[in-house]
């Protein structure tokens, strides 16, 4: 018998998420060394020294189960964001929190809205619970069309809306004013998952405090007992991660902030030990190392200039990005080159970038911002690819 037939049709229809190619995988395939991986938006500086020290210390208790409630990490987050621990849910990376949101509130027959060219996990999480995803076309520069998403959400009576800000893989950005206008127009019985995985990379002049939207309208903090449950937007879930600017991608740890009643639902479907003890200890230390995050952002800003100027010199179009990556268009009929061919040739030259054809962007590749030397190797390899295609 075909055992796949035992699974529900909506599970059989899922196209699994394809992660970026690993350095070790490419080494095995091509037998080359000195590979640069710029495919998964990882922090090229690694992790905070404080986080690494905390990991080593935590290993001494590795035989014990982790704190299923994440007391230390939740306390640190509570202090940072002035929000009650009852409003915090921890996840095995922010992906886990996106899936927990879908599992807790969506089921067969329900609908969720997300933007075209937005993070693939929104569609996967929706489909995995048998709900129907509605992808709203991007009408300008591959970004979220919030008015159209609002219209779709109301028209189709959806339960959930996913928004990425900045968006992956395009790096497009929505201002606080745009988001607030959307939230205030949206019916309060529709949940909004605001994915801020790349929030730390925003320049100072564009930063906004979404967490304050979880406070009472008059500014009274959620942590105040009198204000609990009186959020301005009780339908808002803010998800963030330690995988990007904090450099803890390999540990898989994220968090989400929300109304306590919403958090209660996510905790009912959350695995009891979904964040391991080493990850929790590292995250607490990383959260407190503001200098490391500052250095990361400064390096990213320099690298973004380096990469985008290099793309301009090569005559390639790109989407202006506010993340730690940039999508660039690479197609030229006369030179007989396209994104797929360029991706393969870059691999042969020891540079791993990310194809984004599965985001309905077949002419684009996404490159993460790396160290100065890594960016230079990418640009040199790309120039060579373009030259070979002449």
Nutshell version of this structure?
The chain is α/β, with parallel strands linked by helices.
Please provide a written account of the structure:
The chain has 13 helices and 13 strands. The chain has 2 domains: 3-33 and 291-388, Aspartate Aminotransferase, domain 1 (Alpha-Beta Complex); 49-290, Aspartate Aminotransferase, domain 2, CATH 3.40.640. It has 390 residues and is an alpha/beta fold. It has a 7-stranded mixed beta sheet, sandwiched between helices. A 4-stranded antiparallel beta sheet has the order 9-10-13-12, covered by helices on one side. It has a two-stranded parallel ribbon with strand order 1-11. The chain has helices spanning 9-12, 23-30, 49-58, 71-81, 94-105, 120-128, 146-155, 176-185, 260-269, 277-288, 290-313, 339-348, 372-388; strands at residues 36-37, 88-91, 111-115, 132-136, 160-164, 191-195, 236-241, 254-257, 318-319, 325-329, 351-352, 354-355, 364-368. Helix 3 runs antiparallel to helix 10 and helix 5 (94-105) packs across helix 9 (260-269). Helix 8 links the parallel strand 5 (160-164) and strand 6. Mean pLDDT is 92; it is low at 217-230.
Q: At the third CATH level, what is the topology name of the largest domain?
A: Aspartate Aminotransferase, domain 2
Number of helices: 13
Spatial order of the strands in the main sheet? 2-8-7-6-5-3-4
Return the average pLDDT rounded to an integer.
92
Fourth-tier CATH superfamily name of the largest domain:
Type I PLP-dependent aspartate aminotransferase-like (Major domain)
In whole angstroms, the N-to-C terminal distance is 52 Å
**Helix/strand order:** HHEHHEHEHEHEHEEEHHHEEHEEEH
The gyration radius over C-alpha positions equals: 21 Å
Strand content: 5-15%
Anisotropy-based shape: globular
């Amino acid at each position: 018998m075909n055992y796949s037939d035992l699974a529900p049709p909506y599970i059989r229809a899922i196209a699994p998420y394809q992660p970026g190619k690993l350095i070790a995988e490419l080494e095995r395939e091509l037998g080359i060394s000195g590979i640069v991986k710029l495919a998964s938006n990882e922090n090229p500086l690694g992790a905070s020294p404080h986080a690494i020290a905390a990991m080593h210390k935590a290993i001494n208790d590795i035989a014990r189960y982790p704190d299923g409630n994440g007391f230390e990490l939740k306390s640190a987050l509570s202090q940072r964001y002035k929000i009650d621990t009852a409003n915090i849910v921890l996840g095995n990376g922010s992906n886990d929190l996106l899936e927990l949101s879908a599992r807790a509130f969506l089921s067969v027959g329900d609908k969720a809205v997300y933007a075209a060219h937005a993070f693939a996990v929104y569609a996967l999480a929706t489909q995995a619970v048998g709900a129907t995803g509605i992808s709203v076309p991007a009408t300008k520069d591959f970004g979220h069309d919030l008015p159209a998403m609002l219209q779709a959400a109301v028209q189709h009576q959806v339960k959930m809306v996913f928004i990425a800000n900045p968006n992956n893989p395009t790096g497009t950005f929505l201002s606080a004013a745009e988001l607030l206008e959307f939230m205030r127009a949206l019916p309060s019985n529709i949940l909004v998952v605001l994915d801020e995985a790349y929030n730390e990379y925003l320049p100072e002049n564009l930063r906004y405090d979404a967490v304050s939207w979880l406070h009472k309208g008059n500014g009274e903090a959620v942590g105040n007992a009198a204000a609990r449950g009186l959020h301005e937007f009780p339908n808002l879930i803010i998800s963030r991660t330690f995988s990007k600017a904090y450099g803890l991608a390999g540990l898989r740890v994220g968090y989400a902030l929300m109304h306590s009643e919403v958090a209660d639902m996510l905790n009912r479907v959350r695995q009891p030990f979904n964040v391991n003890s080493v990850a929790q200890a590292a995250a607490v230390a990383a959260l407190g190392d503001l200098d490391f995050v500052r250095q990361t952002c400064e390096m990213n800003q320099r690298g973004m200039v380096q990469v985008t100027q290099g793309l301009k010199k090569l005559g390639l179009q790109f989407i202006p990005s506010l993340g730690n990556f940039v999508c660039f268009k690479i197609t030229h009929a006369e030179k007989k080159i396209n994104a797929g061919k360029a991706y393969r040739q870059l691999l042969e030259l020891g540079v791993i970038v990310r194809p984004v054809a599965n985001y309905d962007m077949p002419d684009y590749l996404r490159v993460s911002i790396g160290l100065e030397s890594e960016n230079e190797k990418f640009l040199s390899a790309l120039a060579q690819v373009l030259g070979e295609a002449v």
